[in-house]
């Protein structure tokens, strides 16, 4: 709330993100993070006793400052992602 991003844009981001995570593992791995890096696609372990799953898929991007963006980790599919 109060961040200046329209509801329509947030909904579009949500839909495109869902499309990315619905892709095959092989396609998602094209954007896998590199060792020692946070950016890119990967899995993180969850270490909570009451957690149903012990892992989570994630896609992390640095967007600001611009000189720290690594576009090689930004998916080309779905095309709207970029």
From TrEMBL:
Pfam families assigned: DIOX_N
What sections of the protein cross the membrane? Answer: none
State the InterPro entries in the record. DIOX_N, IPNS-like_sf, Plant_2OG-oxidoreductases
Q: Which residues form the Non-haem dioxygenase N-terminal domain?
A: 2-76
Supply the alphabetized keyword list: Iron, Metal-binding
Against Gene3D superfamilies, the record matches this protein to: B-lactam Antibiotic, Isopenicillin N Synthase, Chain (2.60.120.330)
Instruction: Specify the protein name.
Output: Non-haem dioxygenase N-terminal domain-containing protein
State the organism of origin: Brassica napus (Rape)
């Amino acid at each position: 709330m109060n961040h200046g991003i329209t509801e329509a844009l947030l909904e579009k981001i949500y839909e495109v993100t869902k499309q990315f995570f619905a892709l095959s593992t092989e396609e998602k791995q094209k954007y896998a993070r590199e060792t020692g890096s946070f950016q890119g696609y990967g899995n993180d372990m969850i270490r909570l006793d009451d957690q149903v799953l012990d892992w989570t898929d994630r896609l992390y991007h640095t967007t600001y400052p611009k000189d720290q963006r690594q576009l090689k980790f930004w998916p080309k599919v779905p095309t709207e992602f970029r």
